[in-house]
Amino acid sequence: MALYVLLGFSAGLPFFMFSTILGLRLQAHEVGLVVIGFFAWVQLLPTFKFAWAPLLDRYDIPGFSRFWGKRRGWIMLSQLGILTSMIAMALTASDESLPVTALFAVLLAFWTTTLEVAADAWRIELAPTREEQGPITAANLWGYRSAMVAAGSGALLIADRSGWTASYLAIAAAAFVPLPILIAMRPDPGHGGGRWTALATGLLASAAILLGALLLTAAVGWVVLGIAEQIGISAQTNVTPYVLVICMVPFLIMAAAVPRIRKLPPDSAVRQSAALGPYVDFFWRYGFGALVLMAFVSIYRMGDVLALNLSKPMIKELGYSLTQIGRADSLVALIASMIGVGLGGWMVIRWRQGFTLAIGAFFAALGNFGFVWLAHQPPNEALLYIATAADQFGNGLAGAVFVVYLSLLVNPRYPGAQYAFLSGFAFLLPRLLSGAGGAIVEALDKAGHNGFDIFFLISGVASLAAIPFLPLLARIKPRPDDMT
Question: Hey, what's the signal peptide range on this chain (predicted)?
Fold first, then answer.
């Protein structure tokens, strides 16, 4: 339990630094709201973690894994990636080159996500039942959400006094703390050898892997930006229609593939494949019910994700300072979030799954509606605390019950890959739409409406839209596993 508080803390620290904090940093450097919205697409990277999650199940990190085991080996590499990426973001905190800012934000998102994949796989292996999942999930989310609160509030308070470079360096130092603790831990069962030899080998291998990831990301980014320029995408482009079309593509592909997948025998090449087998297995077990499951998971956290990227810029426009926002995101948000997580972890053990999911959706929606209420009040720090507490409580409660629900959909044969696929897909549609959020708000403002008001009303309703799915979910049962 203590270990998973630690792992949650380690994964939660960087998240705000490439999402909410980065949005406020760009706003401070007078970057337009539409471009700030585009930067929300950095958060799409965790959505596609299923693309590299099988690598974490199949391969070891040289040195680290020999002594500390596969899962901790990947966790240690990821922490080094988080540290170096955040230092790079600190050294480029002037945002004079937005492509460079995006490069290091993407790398930070990649290594943060890789850490989560490794930790999630280990969690499912350690606690395969619902009774075991509730407490360990709550512990993990306590660490995760308290780290997000610490990063969010601490980064803003430091930035208001000492600048953005100092802010990112301070959070980088905090993110580094768990690594020495992991190094000092006992070897993984079945592993061993020299601790310091394994550490030295692991550090050399990590340096090579980190450099390779940097070069590959820079090359892909250069190509993507070049294509965007060629087809005319800019800050003036209305990207919303394109985003909505893209959102439909995964569902069309899945619907076309399910009939063939259901007929595959256990010895078929695609079901035996290390790269595709885990994902094919999910659709083989659930059939067309998988489409309903995927639609539900893509909607359940919609409101939280849509609010994440634009809530702080909206609050800043209302006249609150970075210090006031930081204070609201400190103790107030931490207490509200941890109460929500704890209550969610308690509920999944004692109450029916559908009921707990419905309660989570309701309180998540309430948190979004709180921002609309705040926008119509005169600036008052106490009111900011109330809105922040409502948002964090709802996020914590919904997050806890949702993590357990996703974990129970997973085949224990493929814990890392399938959980990565489900949790990643859950945020694909919300994060695609979130990237268009700035454009949506500006379009509503130009039409004579209050863009932020309508945007947060929509985000709250989106959370409630998951509730009608619950009776259908109760009828969906997986096919028995036929692989030995």
Answer: none
